[in-house]
Amino acid sequence: MRTLSLLLAIFLCINLVAAACVGASPKGEAESSPAPQGTVPPTVTYIPTVVKTSELFTTPEWSTVTFTPIEGDVVNPERGFRYSFDDLRPDTDFSTYRMLGTSLVYSYVRLDDYRETDLPPELLQRVQDALDAVRAGGVKVILRFAYNFGPYPNSEPDASKEQILRHIEQLKPVLQRNADVIAWMHAGFIGAWGEWHTSTHGLDKDMQAKKEILYALLDALPQDRMVQLRYPWDIIRLFPEPLSSDQAFTGSPQARVGFHNDCFLSSETDVGTYDRDGRNTRQEDQAYLQQMTQFTPAGGETCQVYPPLQQCDVAIREMELLHFSDLNLSYHPRVIRNWQREGCFDEIQKRLGYRLVLEEAKFPVTLHPGMQLEVHVKLRNEGFAAPVNPRPIFLVLDGPTTLTFPLEDVDPRRWLPGEHTIRVRLDFPKSIPSGTYTLALWLPDPYETLRDDPRYSIRFANENVWDEEHGWNVIGSVQIP
């Protein structure tokens, strides 16, 4: 009898505990009595009646796509070999140069007739019309304003500091209005060819005057546009410490100053570019430039044949060091022909500026409404430099409807040569038409005037990814059930 009573007590205890553990109200809320003070309440586990869709699909099936690089050059905005013009003209068909394989042109605006007078409305309108032609042609321009074409050493006159500042003030509305098609500018204005030497007004010897002119030009442009200086020594005197990663892209004057070398690889000092006036050796200047040109544009042209520095391996190493984004295809022609004959022209053409190559993309095969959209992309920059100007990036889903997701934490200007990974996790709409959706990356121009023009979108250097109609890089497709 005592044994039977003991068994009955154990049975009742087991059932009471089980009832306490699994009992739940019809609404799905756990029922429990308040625990006595000083004790730990029992843990109650239940499944709520309302479940977020994303919680039901935590381990989707993934698709992994690998990509094949393109062998040749890819015409992309704000990079590459460029054609040059002695004067910017509105009757030029700039689309011709895009068909020749470049997205970038360089041009002077000649101000010879206005060394002592204001710029007339007709000149300002001509510049506007020419920049409209640049836009219609699907290219961008590097601008330089100059009062003469040399010669050296007995140059034609330039203008006074006061006249230059007045001209920049007059040009400001045109520059602001057309910044979308200005890749960047040369500082110009001072001296022979606007190269900041041989000034008949002595401005090339006046550091304060040079600073005032540079800062006026920076002010005339939007903060997202940069100005290149001709001589490293001027840059170093203005900004003794090279631009750091933290300072880059902040809009400060230093963050907007790049470098152009108009006698690139053309002598041991690049014809006075380095070791200027007995200051700073080539190696000292280049150590400074190597740091700053990670974040600002560098480019230029050769000016004479000088084989020791123009051999293919030496030239490519120099372009890597200085992160070259552009180079004049028009001059010096013998140097260009030598690179073609020696076999490195194609590599230089492909690597000037950025060359972005997709390697791998991972994303869900099926995407349920309410899930988080997660995408991983590996890419490689094989170019000499990163993209210089601001560049948004979007993830696009295109099917029965089109969704565009801005990737605000991704800055292509930070894609220096080497490997990079994009990892995206986005909230996905809870209601979307079912169907098959194309998944793409879109890197359009940030200006509204050019955003929907695919000629100004960045194309990855891969086979079978480019959607020319939209300017998208297609990385795969997902199914929405």
Supply the key terms.
481 residues; alpha/beta; Immunoglobulin-like; TIM Barrel; 3 domains; 5-stranded antiparallel β-sheet; 17 strands; 27% helix; 22% strand; globular
Domain module tally: 3
Q: What oligomerization state is this entry in?
A: single chain
The pLDDT mean sits at 89
Structural class: alpha/beta
Would you tell me which CATH topology of the largest domain applies?
TIM Barrel
Q: Let me know the number of strands.
A: 17
Strand content: 15-25%
Biggest sheet character: 8 strands, parallel, barrel
Distance between the termini: 65 Å
**General form:** globular
Description:
This protein is of the alpha/beta class and 481 residues long. The chain has 3 domains: 2-50, no CATH class; 62-71 and 356-480, Immunoglobulin-like; 80-351, Alpha-Beta Barrel (TIM Barrel), CATH 3.20.20. It contains 13 helices and 17 strands. The protein has helices at 2-22, 53-56, 95-99, 121-136, 161-177, 207-220, 232-238, 282-292, 307-310, 312-322, 333-342, 345-351, 448-451, and strands spanning 62-66, 80-85, 104-110, 140-146, 182-186, 227-229, 257-261, 298-300, 324-328, 356-364, 372-381, 394-398, 402-406, 418-427, 435-442, 466-467, 472-480. The strands form 3 sheets. An 8-stranded parallel β-barrel has the order 2-3-4-5-6-7-8-9, surrounded by 5 helices. Strands 13-12-15-17-16 form a 5-stranded antiparallel sheet, with no helix packed on it. A 4-stranded antiparallel sheet has the order 1-10-11-14, with no helix packed on it. Helix 7 links the parallel strand 6 (227-229) and strand 7. Helix 5 (161-177) packs parallel to helix 6 (207-220). The longest helix has 21 residues, at 2-22. It is globular. The N and C termini lie far apart (65 Å).
